[in-house]
Amino acid sequence: MGALVAVFHRELALSFRQRxxxxxxxxxxxIVISLFPLAIxxxxxxxxxxxxxxxxxAAILSLLLGMERLFRDDxxxxxxxxxxxxxxxxxxxxxxKVFAHWLVSILPLVLLSPLLAMFLNMTWDMYWVxxxxxxxxxPTISLIGAIGVSLxxxxxxxxxxxxxxxxxxxxxxxxxxxxxxxxVSLQLPYGFQIGIMxxxxxxxxxxxxAAIAYSLRVSLN
Length: 221
What we know:
single chain
């Protein structure tokens, strides 16, 4: 447990040292959502109809923007090899690293969602469902994204390859999240979509850490 706490503290310290990279996803998220109403017009009904999809697409693209650095520095300076050779299970170490990345890179997007929901004319019911979908979907995106990063971490130019691998895997989350937000706007039940997203999160949480650790071992060889 002490080793995992040390890894968590190290990740937080390194993230806050690289503040420019830390702020890139947040700024991209804000810019995309701020520009979107200018493109489609200020109509309240149109903004409300597309608000869930706009926020979710912007969130996915923002997460991809900062995902590459998840294992990059550790792979470059040799820390990743030490992690995999340590007595602490590798799947726990990568789970801690993914959680730290979610905490510093993705949680700010969730915290900004109330302001953006008001900007896009979402009702409070729509906002709460948006918050549920973000809290269930963004950890899944982090875990799946970490698998893609671990597979491409040894490549010198993985910036274009990584989105091509990951974007198709995020389509189910995008469909169920926007469907839940649209259902509540039409006063229809949305428990099915939330349940599916929870099931995807639990399934990913069970399998992704081991897959990430194995992919990192393959990349190091």
